[in-house]
User: Fold this.
Amino acid sequence: MLAPDPLLGLRSWGVAPAGLLAGAVLCVAGWALYVRARLNGRDSRRQARFAEEELKAYVDLLPIGVLTIDPRGALVLCNRSAPGLLGIDREDLQAVAWCSPEFAIIDANGDGLEPEELPWNKALATGRRVPGDVVGIERMDTGDWSWLSVTAQPRCDGDGVLVEVICTLEDVTQQKTAEAELTLQHLRDSLTSLPSRALFMERLSRAILRSDRRKFFSAVLFLDLDRFKVVNDSLSHEAGDKLLIQVASRLRGCLRPEDTVARLGGDEFAVLFEDITSVNDGLQVAERISHSLATPFNINGQEVFTTCSMGIAISSSSETLSAELLRDAEVAMYRAKAKGEGSLEIFDPSMNAKALARFQMEGELRRALDRGEFILHYQPVVGLGTGRIEGFEALVRWNHPERGMVPPLDFIPLAEETGLIVPLGKWVLEEACRQAGAWNRAFPADPPRLMNVNISARQFQHKDLIPTVLDALRAADMAPGTLKLEITESIMMRDPLASLEAMKTFKSLDIHLVIDDFGTGYSSLSYLKRFPVDTLKVDKSFVDGLGKDPESTAIVTAIISLARSLGMRVTAEGIETNDQMEHLQKLACDQGQGYHFARPLDRDRAEELLARDPRW
Assistant:
């Protein structure tokens, strides 16, 4: 017997075939004729059963899916195509509560649909046809997404009571995938070909949405390359780009096929882990990444070493917002970076409070510059041979309108990190020079007293440092020879050659140079011999042990001896007792400063001290 013609019903109703749309018409019209015939009583029961079986046969032959759902969300009828389109076998399909399905359903933009937004529920609620809503349904067999155009047609009985909704499901996955591929061309990082931030956030949103049903977790690993700016500045931006490309390649090699790695911008990357059982799974990948990056990179024939700071945050609920999870991982990364290069931190909620406090502090710090909330205190530098004040060190203080005096350690590192240290340092330099010029005119001395000003890492690397210093001296009518710039060993050794050139320029202008905290960092003595430094400043940690700790005494003795051999002077900081001062005098240390002489003083009290001209 020949198989029935699936379009026979359409032809008998005078409707021309029109692809898949014809199937929808067949389904709805055929079902309506069948019901009308039964309601009118013109068919015998046998004829009604025959019509019903014939209709089901036609519906089963359709290439589109057909579902009939009653007002309670129960499945009344489905054809053979529906289970294949949905990735759900017929028995499981029958058990689905269609008013609120367990599997994920998203709209065309990838956003999750609430139950009342589903096409069949909208048709049941309004009694009106819903034409061609495109939805994505997560297949239960593969976990992939089926994209379907769903038309929902409500059907009422003879009394006008809504009894069911007939849904047709047309597969538009191929069309949707083609659109997605076109979109992906704009969602890829042009340098590394990794997903961009936008694509990463889309995948993260979907992963979180699936987490509840799959009973697994999703996690985000946020990575930031350490000292990437050094590569850009010393080797060129082209070399930096090559490093990013190689880093991206190594990151891909560390991940599972289902994981996503994206470049968020600059030297920041993020990894999405799906279907993990605990944070330990993410930590294992982070360890592989750290090990992979430990091998040097070959950039233009030169070996380049880099590490990365990493933060990880985990989501255990579909209610987690993707933006919040990425933010949490970034907060953890910044905590890791504060611990030291190559560190890893796991996010905990307390970090948010600290991050918020930091954000507020940054905003207040920016406003403080405009509002003039910063002041300078001055600590005297005393000649240990003469006992007289030979200069001052200018120390910035923040006079917060609500918190009072904010300790420098609470805002200087943040200013350095955010770059605010550059305008703040410029103000400190200008104000210190202005004050030094005024004091040298009001309280003349021979030789003139010097003003020490600390220079931060960012300031020292800034291209406008030399013009800024010269402008400050000129505005204060201050002789260059009365200014001392203090630079730490670590700043000086970041780029020794560039440091040497800058220091030679300052030396040619007769500006004094001091290496602050000497002995606490790492410096090459061969470079130290070449640097045009005037003074070595002994760190307080060594001064504390004088007379009590033989090692500290030996170190201070060695530093003074080294300075003498190189034609430099020595200043000891942190002198708190008369015994420490006497030990340093015996070692022929040139200068000292510390609480034994005076704490840092505001301008008025410093002037009172100058007027008294004390001797120690």
Residues 328 and 353 are 11 Å apart (CA to CA). DSSP finds 24 helices and 22 strands in the chain. The chain has three domains: 8-177, 192-348, 358-608. The radius of gyration is 38 Å.
